[in-house]
Write a structure and sequence with these properties.
The complex is a heterodimer. Chain A has helices at 47-54, 75-78, 96-106, 111-124, 140-152, 170-185, 197-203, 221-229, 240-246, 273-282, 297-305, 316-319, and strands at residues 3-16, 19-32, 36-41, 62-67, 81-84, 158-162, 189-193, 206-211, 214-220, 231-236, 252-257, 262-267, 287-292, 325-326. By secondary structure, chain A is an alpha/beta fold. Chain B is built from 21 helices and no strands. Classes of the chains: A alpha/beta, B mainly alpha.
């Protein structure tokens, strides 16, 4: 099996007060075995709807999706999938161990096998010492860990996490990220919906950016961010207007470092560095430093969903080099 | 045997052969086995009953219809493994290689079957036009009832896990505990009244003081009765003015009243539970953690209803056992209420099952308040089901549509009047002396439950969460 997740032309339309609108619009996506794929997008971009359709919780208007090479309606397929939804609650009257045993029962686990599975996920998610507490008495962070534990109770091949750090404090986010990191080390395939870009940057192998139901970009994180960064050239401040005039036709962004008395020139590729330097020298400027810049995921994400922003403007030539596979 | 009967027996034979050949399911072998067993039973019924009652011959069609309508609608055309094998066997050139052939032969089988039915309906015995569709509908309902039971048995793990979890959850709800305690208080207080002298005597003295007034009233009533006017005398007052029989009757009425109050509060438990049984889990997001697991939506719904039903049944049975405890000292007396309580212990939980399934169904697609209100209306109207039937036969100034409407409502609503507490516990009622009507009602109630459960499952399957 090549793809663990395969989505083809998946579309979901809802009827709103202003007529029909598409929450997910002709989505095509593949996630391969063993990778951590992060699905990024603004609120209402269609991430959760996509996951719900993937898991058979929401019925697509059209299009199709496969998980682990089969139909998600097949119980054999679902036995290999773990899911932590964004908005969830568990049975508050149950203790941690009871709730995990209940979810284990749904997978047909019984007796010793069930107890062993419950113990394993308790250790993995750091819930040891809390097993006898009722869920209604736990903090949000601990409940979220219970959520992760229930998603792992069947030792899934594919783990789908929808905004797992939503509502957690910074310590909780870090602890949760560590727990997911431990799962990643077990070579599991993870499909991660998240707003926490720092979390995604640390965990994801590949990302996909969705906005208004359409997939904008997909690609390997390192490649995308490296391609996005370009080069930063720092020069002493020459006659600004003369430099700007001479470099007007080039794909550059100017940032003035007033304190250092320098001008920073951002360019999307290093090939144009010699040409730029020649122009700078011609107007009396001196080179201070040249360094390749790796964009942050935040920059990349914002530029992907809001191309009109000032810092994201590039000319057509360099546009083609950005963002890996553009949909 | 007349021509019509011959035709029915002929239908039976056709059904036996065609049903097995065309509708043997791919996955549910048990259904196929059941088909054979039911046909066998039908055959025996024909042999034994035909000589006694010619009307009973129509049962021959019944078992066949069960399997036919169910498999036809549930498994579709690809279920015809046997017909596929048959085609492969008959084909010397092995031209059948595509799975689509299953469909083709399945469709041909259905066309053939439809022609067969049309032929039966129009060429069969007089009245066949009416009889056959009715049996098809009943057959379909029975099939779904069997299917639900099989689903519960076969998928025991997930369904029971959900049911037991619902059970635990419900017992942790304050409103359930309070309602149950209130019902118990009614049972214990009303029954204790008769057994605790410190409580009973003052009340008896009160009644005895009014005995004279009662006698006077009775005397007046006698005069009024002679004049054909309403007496205005309460039987409770009269109960203490007469014989031991009347006193015992009064004790019994106390017991019935306690039972009625208790049942009312158990019904309230059903209401409070079932409005949020599934809807609460959808709104809270619990369902999002459950349904991605290997549990079908149908199994989930059945588990929830089963859990709710067990709660209501347990609460009721505890209440009834306590009542029984109070009734045992009077065992063997004229107004022995034990058989009636035992009847109630059997029938009431079934009634609560219907109620829970109905409200759960409405709660899936209506606001909570509306679902609860409709449930309440059905609960009340269901208890008046037999009055509706009376209305269906009354003359409404020659407007037949009104009669038809009442008949339709009577058919659609659950007939809860059979298990109305006062009826069951009425010492003069002889309704359930005969086992026949009892079995008939249980059978009907289970079918009704199956229909509602099927509706609930199919509604839930279509919902986006």
């Amino acid at each position: 099996m090549k793809h663990f997740i395969e989505i083809e032309n998946l579309t979901k339309e809802y009827r709103g007060s202003g007529g029909w609108f598409r929450a997910v619009d002709s989505l095509d996506l593949q996630v391969e075995a063993g990778e951590v794929f992060a699905f990024l997008g603004r609120n209402g971009a269609g991430k959760t709807t996509t996951i719900k359709m993937l898991l058979g919780l929401t019925i697509p208007t059209y299009g199709r999706s496969h998980i682990l090479g089969g139909d998600v309606k097949n119980p054999k397929i679902r036995k290999r999938v773990g899911f932590l939804p964004e908005e969830h609650s568990f049975y508050p009257h149950l203790t941690v161990r009871e709730v995990l045993s209940f979810y284990g029962n749904l997978f047909g686990l019984r007796g010793k096998v069930l107890r062993k599975s419950v113990d394993e996920v308790i250790d993995l998610t750091g819930l040891r010492g809390k097993t006898g507490e009722k869920l209604r008495n736990l903090s949000k962070g601990l409940v979220q860990r219970v959520g992760l534990a229930q998603a792992l109770i069947n030792d899934p091949d594919l783990l789908i996490l929808d905004e797992p750090s939503s509502g957690l404090d910074p310590v909780g986010v870090r602890e949760f990220r560590d727990a997911v990191g431990r799962i990643k080390e077990r070579n599991k395939t993870i499909f991660l919906n998240s707003h926490q870009l720092s979390e995604v940057e640390k965990l994801a192998d590949r990302i996909g950016i969705i906005d208004q139901g359409k997939l904008l970009r997909t690609g390997h994180l390192n490649e995308l961010l490296a391609g996005e960064g370009g080069v930063e050239v720092k020069v002493t401040r020459p006659d600004d207007s003369a430099v700007r005039e001479k470099l007007a036709g080039m794909s550059l962004r100017f940032v003035e470092d007033i304190e250092a008395g320098a001008l920073i020139l951002h360019m999307s590729d290093e090939e144009s560095v010699p040409e730029v330097m020649a122009i700078v020298r011609a107007v009396g400027g001196k080179l201070l430093s040249v360094q390749p810049k790796r964009a942050t995921l935040e920059q990349f994400f914002i530029c992907a969903v809001e191309e009109s922003r000032e810092e994201c403007r590039v000319d057509d030539a360099s546009k083609g080099k950005r963002g890996g596979e553009k949909k | 045997m007349n021509a019509g009967e011959r035709h029915e027996v002929g239908e039976f034979s056709w059904g036996s052969y065609l049903g097995f050949l065309y509708f043997f399911p791919r996955r549910l072998y048990l259904a196929g086995l059941m088909h054979i067993i039911l046909l066998g039973i039908a055959f025996v019924v024909i042999l034994f009953v035909r000589s006694r009652n010619a009307e009973m011959v129509k049962w021959a069609v019944f078992p066949f219809s069960i399997i036919e309508i169910g498999l036809l609608t549930y498994y579709g055309f690809k279920a015809n493994r046997l017909s596929w094998k048959y085609c492969k066997w008959k084909s010397p050139y092995n031209f059948i290689s595509s799975n689509n052939v299953w469909d083709v032969f399945g469709r041909l089988a259905v066309v053939f079957r439809v022609l067969n039915v049309i032929g039966y309906v129009f060429l069969g015995r007089p009245g066949g036009v009416k009889a056959y569709p009715e049996w098809l509908i009943i057959g379909g309902i029975v099939f779904y009832a069997i299917l639900i039971m099989l689903t519960i048995i076969r998928s025991r793990g997930p369904i029971w896990a959900v049911a037991l979890n619902t059970l635990k959850e419900s017992f942790s709800k304050l409103e359930v505990v309070i309602l149950f305690l209130i019902s118990m208080v009614f049972i214990i207080l009303f029954n204790s009244f008769w057994h605790v002298p410190a409580v009973r005597e003052p009340v008896l003295q009160f009644f005895e003081k009014s005995q004279e007034a009662a006698k006077i009233a009775q005397g007046r009533a006698g005069n009024l009765e002679e004049e054909g006017q309403p007496t205005g005398v309460r039987s409770d007052e009269a109960a203490f003015s007469g014989s031991g029989y009347e006193k015992t009757l009064f004790r019994l009425r106390l017991q019935v009243a306690a039972f009625l109050f208790g049942e009312f509060f158990i019904a309230l438990i059903c209401f409070t539970l079932s409005i949020f049984l599934v809807r609460g889990e959808i709104q809270g997001g619990v369902v999002l953690t459950v349904l991605p697991k290997p549990i079908g939506r149908g199994e989930y719904i059945l588990g929830k209803i089963l859990g709710g039903w067990i709660i209501a049944a347990v609460c009721f049975e505890v209440m009834a056992i306590v009542s029984l405890g109070f009734a045992i000292p009077y065992h063997g007396q004229t107004l022995d209420n034990i058989p009636n309580i035992l009847h109630a212990m059997l029938l009431m939980p079934i009634k609560f099952g219907i109620l829970i399934a109905l409200i759960t169904y409405f709660s899936l697609w209506l606001p909570e308040a509306v679902a609860g209100f409709i449930g309440l209306v059905i609960f009340i109207a269901g208890h008046m089901s037999e009055y509706l039937l009376d209305l269906a036969t009354d003359d409404f100034a020659g407007i037949p549509i009104l009669n038809q409407s009442f008949k339709a409502i009577h058919v659609l609503l659950p007939n809860l009047s059979w298990v109305f507490s006062t009826e069951i516990l009425d010492p003069n009622a002889t309704r359930f002396v005969s086992i026949g009507p009892l079995i008939e009602w249980v059978f009907w109630a289970l079918l009704y439950f199956a229909v509602i459960a099927t509706l609930t499952v199919s509604t839930f399957r279509k919902q986006s969460l």
